[in-house]
Amino acid sequence: MTRTKTLVLRQFEECSKELQEKILDKHRDIDSEFWGSNMDEFSDLYIRTLEEQGFMNPKIRYDLSCGQGSGASFTCNSIDLDALLKNVEIPHKQALINILKEYCEVKIEENASWSYMHKHSCLVSFNYPSSKDLPLLDRAVDKVIDIIEEKRLQACDTLYEQLENDYEYLESDECIKETLIANEYYFDEEGNIDYPND
Predict the structure, then answer these.
(1) CA angle 172, 177, 182 (to 5 degrees)
(2) pLDDT, tens digit, 9 for 90 and up, residues 71-94
(3) 65: CB partners within 8 A, 6+ apart
(4) Domain range holding 133?
(5) Residue 75 lies in a domain
């Protein structure tokens, strides 16, 4: 015996409050699912923020799993020392910056001993030719490198916080609703999306 069943479909705003809640829970990762592999919307902002601080051409690394090794860090092939140390008070600052620019390549590299993404998985790399004849200068250079490292760690913490906030927003009710309504999806009584080509 043949039987016909009518399937009732509704757009999000037409659904009951209970069904809307079910839909939101069921499709919590609709925006965040592919975020890790396609974060173009946010990448420019992260990169621009790091470059404004003086970390040039940064390559961002992150893991938001909240597990061991999760966090955010970055590498960069050069540092704008004038920008990075702009608001830092150091005796003979400009002279030290000039010395580093002339004799030293300062960059941020992966720490080969780590396979994680957190802030300690990278480090400030420099090749300053220390001199036994000028120990005070060596100490002054080391002090500047310590400040650069401190700035790097702060930048990693800020980056991780930004990444977490953006990821949490993508999984928020507000963002999910916006996506479901903008795409004019229809839903069945179980909260499943009825894709036209299914």
Answers:
(1) 135
(2) 889 999 999 999 999 999 989 889
(3) none
(4) 38-172
(5) yes
